Amino acid sequence: MHAAHLEAYRAVQKSQNSGRELEATVLTKAALKLRECQNSWDAPDRAARLADALDFNQKVWTVFQSELVRSDNPLPAELRQNILTLSAFIDKRIFEVMTDPKPEALSAIISINLGIAAGLRGNR
User: Fold this and answer.
1) 16-43: per-residue pLDDT in tens?
2) Which of 26, 63, 80, 102 has the smallest C-beta neighbourhood within 10 Å, fewest atoms?
3) Domains delineated in the chain
């Protein structure tokens, strides 16, 4: 299943949007899904929406990790390593929220996603 997601990501990346814009769009969508959960924490369907948002974020970051470890990735090694370190933090935070859901625990993931998206768009 992961391979199918990766191939879909690559296909879309090659078509309509530039790779950077696509990545920024996906990160923004991931952040907004989490922010919606955070803003409506007491909603009766929170558990399902939170699980969906965390799953989406985890898939996004897994694709990034897969791309970053490829030998033909054009990013400088130091930048790749920094993003991989950040992705390890994201993974850890996602698992923490899964085991002990708290709305404030989503803030770091939201901030990182939006910050990287802004940087990809040249808005930083």
Assistant:
1) 457 889 999 999 999 999 999 999 999 9
2) 102
3) 2-120 (1.20.120)
